[in-house]
Amino acid sequence: MNLLINLLSVIFLNRENFIIIRNAEKDDLIKVIEINRRCLPENYSYTFFEAILKDYPKSFFVAETYEGEIVGYVMCRVERVLSKISSFRIKKSGHIISIAVIPEYRGLGIGKLLMLNALKSLKEEYGCEESFLEVRVSNKIAIKLYLDLGYKIVDVLKSYYIDGEDAYMMVKAL
Ligand SMILES: CC(C)(COP(=O)(O)OP(=O)(O)OC[C@H]1O[C@@H](n2cnc3c(N)ncnc32)[C@H](O)[C@@H]1OP(=O)(O)O)[C@@H](O)C(=O)NCCC(=O)NCCS
Hints:
This protein is an alpha+beta fold. The protein has helices spanning 29-39, 46-55, 110-124, 140-148; strands at 10-12, 18-23, 61-65, 70-82, 90-101, 130-136, 152-157, 167-173. Bound molecules: coenzyme A (COA).
């Protein structure tokens, strides 16, 4: 393992055990898809995950335990959209497509660290000026995480999800 581990990429659980955040690789995808299906009702095909990894590898991260188990991921896409912060400007915006951490590893700061790595990469590697995401209005934990990271609710997307639930559109300047 690279000894020069970026401080933004490690969570020490105790003296011996730690979690690292690193860029995803193709071999991780089966596990990432398993986590996605376990944690979220919004699921995607293998080819979708593969295409996102191919097109935006630097903002696709996984969380891995010291024993090599993948326990979380975040994947993003860069989109040119009408700015949701300053009107009438097209901007490169980093869309957080999906993030999940398996239940056994929640509340340890992994979700936050995945997001911080994704946001850093969207800005520094892909030149994004904003980031946006959709979240179920009932998903209090995720909404709190995003608010803490500086996202703001800018819209309510009525019946956005297949079961009819509304989504908040949240945006953050990078
Ligand atoms: C949202 C999710 C990724 C957060 O992952 P996580 O690793 O638990 O997040 P963190 O440990 O970094 O916690 C982030 C914040 O969430 C809050 N939080 C985490 N677990 C919580 C819990 N069980 N109860 C209440 N708040 C909780 C904490 O307030 C924390 O903020 P803090 O830094 O002030 O303590 C995770 O809950 C998850 O996978 N949920 C299911 C999938 C999902 O909803 N994805 C988002 C779709 S938009």
